[in-house]
Amino acid sequence: MVRKLFVFIFSVSLLFSFLALAERKSASxxxxxxxxxxxxxxxxxxxxxxxxxxxxxxxxxxxELFIEAFWKQRDPTPGTPENEFKNxxxxxxxxxxxxxxxxxxxPGWRTDRGRIHIILGEPQDIERIAGETQVYNSEIWFYQxxxxxxxxxxxxxxxxxxxxxGEYVLYSPTSDGPQxxxxxxxxxxxxxxxAFRVLKNINPSLARVSLTLIPGESDxxxxxxxASDILIQNVLSVPQKQVKDEYAEKFLMYKDIVEVDYSANYxxxxxxxxxxxxxxxxxxxxxxxxxxxxxxxxQYQDKYSTHLEINGKVADLEGKTVYQYxxxxxxxxxxxxxxxxxxxxxxxxxxxxLLPGQYKFSxxxxxxxxxxxxxxxxxxxxxxxxxxxxxxxxILGYKMDHVSSASSGLRPFMVGSDQxxxxxxxxxHPEESLFLSLQILGLKPxxxxxxxxxxxxxxxxxxFYERSKGWNEYEDGVNFVEEFSLREFxxxxxxxxxxxxxxxxxxxxxxxxxxxxSAAAMPRPWVxxxxxxxxxxxxxxxxxxxxxxxxxxxxxxxxxxxxxxxKNPDSxxxxxxxxxxxxxxxxxxxxxQILLPFSGLEKTPYQVYLLLGKxxxxxxxxxxxxxxxxxxxxxxxxxxxxxxxxxxxxDRLGLRDEALAAWQKSLELKPDQPEIKAKIEKIKKxx
Length: 687
Hints:
Elements lengths: L3 E6 L22 H10 L6 H9 L3 H13 L11 H16 L12 H9 L4 E5 L8 E7 L9 E7 L8 E2 L21 H11 L1 H5 L17 H11 L1 H4 L4 H9 L5 H4 L5 E9 L6 E9 L1 E7 L2 E14 L4 E13 L1 H7 L4 E8 L3 E11 L4 E11 L7 E2 L3 E3 L1 E4 L11 E2 L2 E4 L5 E2 L4 E9 L3 H4 L2 E9 L2 E9 L8 E7 L6 E11 L2 E12 L9 E3 L9 H13 L3 H14 L4 H13 L3 H8 L10 H13 L3 H15 L3 H13 L3 H14 L4 H13 L1
């Protein structure tokens, strides 16, 4: 079998810091290998976030994985075995140690020339000034072609042998000035122009860069250029501009959650989340899109495939888990399809129902093929009620599909009967249309009767385009979709404001922003999602019921779970959920009745036997409870929960020897059980 990994890079924040959860070490506490890596090998290119995370790691294994991730984030060709950035970095270190470390009492990497060479590499030109009696030995390094890092198109850096001895140090027009380059200057040390004129007569080349390092910048006032000092600071910060260090915090956050072979392979993403109410059931769904910066597939013969695993979690603001879910996407492509998507982003759409409330939502997406992972963390709000009118967040889409009927299944970003294709960055092309969708909820009849929707577009602070439409012009009084041609919109940044007017009064407003690109073409993403069950499917009532259970809202949980169970009583999942709610409410008869049909089936899980046994035990049906616990042990083996429950049942029946045997076996498995020891002592004293 031939397997080949294809990796596609796409052009693409919310940072979460877990640094406070671990103890931060000082560099001196690190093993020598990692201390050298941090304080010597990567000292000029590591960001403060990366350094903080590294000092919070607890084991050498974690440090090795982090170092692997550190270099992967800088690899310009991640689909190849070589890491060109890493190789070039160590080549530069070897070069500066050999070249700039001679004749000075420190290694070359610690010198100013060594630092700049490690950061920027070799200059396009070096002009050396040496052996002159009136100026100190100097070097003028000229760089160009680094504007992608926010640097000028061309600029110089100057190094000079201060005082005529030792290493060459980096020259600052402001801190040093032309006078510092002269071996003998007895004029006013604050008169830069006078010193410049002296230097110009001696060495015009050195004088040219003594007041400004940027060609073409005026030095007519005879003062050093502040822009030159800003340039030097920008040069020193170039390494931080070469990488997004969010991966480092993700590494710390998820190193104990994702598998080891994933933890070093965080990939970036863009994401967007919207809350949309289903028109049929009134249930709110969380809709989200994750646009991956990297999408990997494997090849077998003429087929290409990948497998994505999704783990989502919703917690309340105190951190208590309200809902967890798992999902998977197996994707298979032929060569033609692969070719059509190679240079397009990959957008994964998904959705799930959620009860009203304020939450922290997170999702981990893992690619089984490449062992890469990415994460999204958002704070979300699902409206509590419709007692007050509200306008939803806007969804800006580049494409829209009309779905004939919701009974065919729910789809992510479907508003009413229209599915909106929405990219997180909200960038559009002038040849496209912008599809704007929204929901208005909770309006009273008297408010909607004369209502008007207004759509105002702003370019900068100036109004650019307006449209208004009466409420009665829409067939649907909740879901709204408008299409806007962008042909007359010049490239730039825009803001759109949607308002609902109750007569002359502006009752509701919502805003969003978007950009129109000047690029000749804009490849839209390849969108992948699974169509969900129709809104009437009992699975949604079950999910919401489980969420009520997690929130401790037992009566509400029972109501939702009964709805699911009533529609599909053969579902063990639905039955067990309802049984849990009833047991918590001490409805033991109902719990037993719900679970009895599933006992004895081939694939009945352990938890069903345990809950059935507990309900029988609570009803005083000790013989039946014992039979249930024994059935569980015969299928799944013994454990202290079953043994302790068995002991309690035997004790209730007066079977003391059997109770003692069960409890003593439990103590063999876990000796530290004071309550069980007390029960044993009580039986022994009474017997």
